[in-house]
Amino acid sequence: DYLKTINIFTKSRALRIAYRSNFIDVMYRITNKLIWWWLSYHNIGSWITTPSTFSKKILGNKGISKEKILVVPNPIDIGKDDNIKKKKKKIPLILHVGRLSPEKRVDILIKALKYVKSDFKCIITSDGFIRNYLQALAIKERVSRKIKFTGIVSKEKLNEYYNEADIFVSPAVYDTFNNCVAEALIRNTPVIIDEKSGATDFVKHGINGLIVSNSNPKEYAVQIDQLLKYNGFKFSSTEIKNYTDIDNIVAKFEKIYVKKNTENRKVVLDIVKYLFSGVFFYFLLVLGEVGIILHNAIKK
């Protein structure tokens, strides 16, 4: 669907050629295998950090040694406002924050809004290459009058949206952490996320949000209606603030570095190995870009 959309809304002839020849799909499959092979090369390291147990599981399933993977969450800093009190509004606000790209699955949210029975308005921030598609989809699903696409906004404006929002919805899958979900919880905004998200580490179903187990827009609509009508979650943001506090996270990294470097002092050798692996990874990326350029040149 997205490749078709790119063909419709993008003026780039190269993308249209790539779509028709299925070249992008082939390059993706090849690059994906090469990248996972490159990541397994990281087993030479003493340890690997990742921001969630969800991403740790994925890395472990792809050949990375689970014993070497340590979970350290991302730090979040969106201001020091405490005890945010939500003001009751006649029309509740649904918020989505995040780049507009396929893996964020904003299309699921837009399709779900068609089935929401409660009155609402929705704000979708940020930007991305499928924005035109999403705006067209909103028109197609007849919910465009209730959705506002803001584009990129300032940090101050984003904080205003977090404070005003009644619920936050992120259908994204395979996010290693999802900072935006954590930011919403810090602002005492209940969230709806997919079960295939790193945010499942700190989103507790029925306590500070709801976790959807399938990608059906109607299921998301049911959960949205439930929160809009009930929204009885009385959770404290203190836990998520402590979990993502930058001082706490720096302390975790310091503890890891001190302990691991004491266990294994071959630091110089490790640095050389990682430099080599990094150079090799970028070589793969450049190789893919060159392949696309040559392919398009031949087609012309």
From TrEMBL:
Residues 80-230 form the Glycosyl transferase family domain. PANTHER family: SULFOQUINOVOSYL TRANSFERASE SQD2 (PTHR45947). InterPro entries: Glyco_trans_1, Glycosyltransferase_grp1. The chain crosses the membrane at residues 274-294. This is Glycosyl transferase family 1 domain-containing protein. One of its GO terms (molecular function) is glycosyltransferase activity. Keywords: Membrane, Transmembrane, Transmembrane helix. Pfam families: Glycos_transf_1 (PF00534). It comes from marine sediment metagenome.
